[in-house]
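Last lecture ended with a question: if I hand you only a sequence, what can you say about the shape of the protein? Today we answer it with a concrete record. The protein is Plasmid stabilisation system protein. Below, first the input exactly as provided, then the predicted structure, then a couple of comments.
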Amino acid sequence: MIVEFTELAQQDVRDVLRQTNDQFGSRQLRRYAALFDTAQALLGEDAERPGSLDRSDLLPGIRLFHLELAAGKTGAASHCLYYQVGTLSDETQGVIVLRVLHQRMEPTPHLAKALQQG
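The predicted structure:
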């Protein structure tokens, strides 16, 4: 299954990686960037994979994938991918990553903004 990131999610990733580099250096930047690649591949294999969470309590059809699942280690990451399965820009079915947020952030307003922007 194809995985696409919204413009806002792409900006979230850029911001996270910039902050990672600024705070922890280039070695950690490479590790964290690899987690995003792994997470994308895992969601492409199975959007409802074990460990991902149904967050329809926030908005219908929303799921959460914590980056620590991509690392295979608790505490290895602090960010979550909020996504839904739907129709991609090329009219195929796939995973749409709406936002990438720190685990302590309140997701609802950020997800609402992503959905408004389509």
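Comments.
1. The chain has one domain: 2-117.
2. The helical segments are 7-24, 26-45, 67-71, 108-117.
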